Description:
Blueprint: H1 2-23, E1 29-42, H2 45-48, E2 63-78, E3 81-97, E4 101-119, E5 125-144, E6 155-175, E7 178-189, E8 196-208
Antiparallel strand pairs: 1-2, 1-8, 2-3, 3-4, 4-5, 5-6, 6-7, 7-8
Amino acid sequence: xxxxxxxxxxxxxELAKAEVKKNKPAADFSMLVGGGALxxxxxxxxxxxxxxxxxxxxxxxSVLPEVNxxxxxxxxxxxxxxxxxxxxxQTSILYFENEYIQSYLPFTVVELNCEIQRKLGTDxxxxxxxxxxxxxxxxxxxxxxQDTEEERQASEAAFVNWGAQAGLSFVFIPVKxxxxxxxxxxxxxxxxxxxxxxxxxxxxxxxRL
Length: 209
């Protein structure tokens, strides 16, 4: 009887371990893609350049749609916390046209953040805090127009400015290896002539390995 009881307890322990392993969320690396919005909150000079959307609709909005890509690696774990690094990029396109010029300005922010995550009662819900530095890259692609001539050859120029940001997001892991993240970053761009502050909101999803 004693041997049978030991075997039963061992079998129950193995089943419990298998259940924990099955329900345990994937661990450390995530790659997510989605969309969001860039919201300009001070200076505004950059977005005043944007007088139309790409669909030729007149606008004076301080909000631009953007594409958002995020990768995180969180190898350090302690008492319900995870910490590591995140690499993120957001891209918006500004568009301007009048009788003299037609111009596109792809505006990209590349971030490198320290990230820390905390469980919110369960492994499926987490709160993430982020802090880091960034590079804001503006590419200007312009065509100049004349009344009596064809459009001149397009000209291109690129400008890079450094920035800093802090962010907050909520992470949901509905099933193993799949993650959804909703968050926002505040980004200050150190442009000498016009220091600029933006809020980047985003909803992204993808794999968690």
